Amino acid sequence: MPSQSPKTVPEVSIAETLLRTVSLVGLTLAFAAIFRFWHPTIKLVQMVAATHAWQWLYTLFRVDSALGREQMILIGIIVFCFCAALIVQIAGLAVIKRIRSRS
């Protein structure tokens, strides 16, 4: 006997899924552009890359070359930007849901 949940979640349309995906990618790229072109974030990345924890990551992943270090820094920036974009998107969707529920 299958159990039924008391609250069903409505399905999300393909168009809405595509819109969410495009917005997530766009936000990620926008945040990455901020890291590339805004001087304070460049300094922040340099400070983080000089920390003991980041040096430990180089050792953990056996990164020995300067190119490998650059690639790891870029991966870190993109992962951070994706997580920030995801948080912004979730917050935006919550605000939209709240606005729709009031109407």
Describe the structure.
By secondary structure, this protein is mainly alpha-helical. It has one domain. It contains 4 helices and no strands. Helix 1 crosses helix 4. It is elongated, with a radius of gyration of 20 Å. Keywords: Membrane, Transmembrane, Transmembrane helix.
| Ends apart, CA distance between termini | 38 Å
* Low-pLDDT sequence parts: none
User: In angstroms, what is the radius of gyration?
Assistant: 20 Å
Number of domains: 1
Principal-axes geometry comes out as: elongated
Secondary structural class = mainly alpha
**Beta content:** under 5%
Helix content: over 70%
Number of strands: 0
Order of helices and strands: HHHH
Mean pLDDT: 90
Q: Can you summarize the main beta sheet?
A: none
Number of helix segments? Answer: 4
Keywords: Membrane, Transmembrane, Transmembrane helix
Transmembrane segments: 18-37, 73-96
